[in-house]
Design brief:
alpha/beta; ten-stranded mixed beta sheet; nine-stranded mixed beta sheet; 10 helices; 19 strands; globular
């Protein structure tokens, strides 16, 4: 597509990055838009006219927070973060700097475009190492920081390739060996122009024995015909600890497609939380590749779909080493004519003995017209493992509803209480109180509309 070639040319950057972008664009051009005939997209169809897609217009930076969207102003006044970026479409429109003591220890937190210019060695080492720009022929997986030879996900596709080619900005976090960042770092992404698309990329590198929390939030007003496409690469080195939180609260009319993948080395820990509340169609892929012995992955998610929203979650717990542990808990609510999709895979390689892996997906249905599709899966190639998976889908518990109503509580209020309680056990596992309160506020708004 000539227009995308022109856009790639306009991105600029060093030769190595241009080459990677071109690989992504070549892959994008060679692939079809996934349809129901592709197993990983069986229940989700994205209708998009790529020829009609226009990039989100540029935005000017400001030092005045009152010029930021109201939703961002509200979040910045209530969140506890050590530093943050605000991106409107492709541009950083507001930022705060890292505390001096963290900078002195070698911590880097900036937008990815700036990082390519100022920290080229680190960015080149890790960018595209977890979510590659191409799909080679063999089936081995290289370590982050080296050339990847094959992604562990069989559904590498057109949207991921487009994000690899045309990302305009995003966040870059680098925490050196042995450094612990106590307060979370955050990126707040907004869009403000309907009928456009934005492609972003986030890269978080946590070196040996380092620790950091990164909060990635997306928010907008109603924007018909708008697309948010992106990729998140999480590199967790030996004995490092990374907590990643994604909160998607786009306005109606937005199509959200994002791949989030973590690569966890020996004794490393990756805790992830994916919250999906906004947009008209959302497809989120969260995957953990447990490379080293003793690696640990906790994958949490909650979603609430109402009206005609369509939320699709695709997960992969890939155990490639012995004595690793993973635990997945996804909980969702479907109301009105909404659709929920969960497809989760626990994959255990031949040498991944003593694997300990769990997967649980539960959905609460508030409407007889809503639909939910759940496909938990196991692919086990080792013979000494403990793996389990399960899925439940059903209406509000009638006994619990009767109990509350017998105490004089109206049916409407009782149902709202039960919905809140149903989702609460996911949030109980998140030790970030300002984030939990914010998510509870979104849930309250959704429940109020239920």
């Amino acid at each position: 597509m000539t227009k995308f070639n022109d856009q790639l040319t306009q991105t600029g950057g060093p030769e190595w990055l241009t080459a990677k972008r071109q690989q992504g664009l070549d892959l994008f051009t060679s692939l079809d838009v996934p349809t129901e005939g592709v197993e990983a997209w069986k229940y989700t169809r994205v209708d998009v006219d790529f020829d009609a897609l226009n990039p989100h217009p540029k935005r000017e930076a400001t030092t005045d927070t009152t010029k930021l969207p109201a939703s961002v102003q509200k979040r910045l006044s209530s969140t506890d973060v050590g530093a943050f970026l605000v991106l409107d479409g492709p541009d950083v429109v507001y930022r705060t700097e890292l505390p001096a003591e963290l900078t002195a220890k070698g911590v880097i937190f900036t937008d990815l475009k700036t990082a390519v210019e100022q920290h080229a060695d680190k960015v080149q080492q890790y960018l595209y190492s977890v979510v590659p720009a191409e799909v080679p022929d063999d089936t081995t997986i290289a370590a982050p920081g080296t050339t990847p030879s094959k992604s562990p996900d069989p559904s590498e596709g057109k949207f991921s390739a487009l994000a690899a080619a045309l990302w305009t900005n995003g966040a870059f976090v680098y925490v050196p060996r042995g450094v612990e960042v106590e307060l979370p770092l955050g990126s707040f992404r907004v869009m403000s122009e309907a009928g456009t698309y934005t492609a972003t990329r986030t890269l978080v590198v946590c070196e040996e024995n380092a620790q950091v929390t990164f909060i990635d939030e997306q928010d907008s007003e109603e924007l018909p015909g708008t697309y948010a496409i992106g990729a998140v690469e999480l590199v967790v080195k030996q004995a490092a600890r990374l907590r990643y939180v994604s909160i998607q609260n786009w306005g109606k009319g937005v199509t959200h497609i994002q791949r989030q993948r973590g690569d966890v080395e020996r004794d490393g820990t990756l805790n992830s939380l994916v919250v999906t509340m906004g947009g008209t169609l959302s497809r989120t892929e969260m995957q953990s590749y447990l490379r080293g012995q003793g690696a640990d992955s906790e994958m949490l998610a909650l979603y609430f779909a109402n009206d005609d929203q369509h939320f699709d979650h695709y997960t992969l717990q890939h155990h490639a080493a012995a004595h690793a542990h993973s635990d997945l808990l996804y909980k969702g609510v479907n109301d009105d004519t909404s659709v929920g999709v969960f497809s989760g895979m626990i994959k255990v390689d031949l040498d991944a003995q003593k694997t300990d892996a769990y997967q649980k997906h539960r959905t609460l249905m508030l409407s007889s017209e809503a639909r939910n599709f759940s496909v938990p899966q196991l692919e086990i190639n080792a013979n000494d493992v403990r793996c389990s998976h399960g899925s439940t889908t059903g209406p509000v518990d009638q006994e619990a509803l009767f109990f509350l109503r017998s105490r004089g509580i109206s049916r409407e209020v009782a149902e709202k209480m039960l919905v809140t309680a149903f989702l609460e056990d996911v949030l109980a596992r998140v030790p970030l109180q300002s984030v939990v309160k914010y998510i509870e506020g979104i849930i309250a708004e959704k429940v109020g509309a239920a």
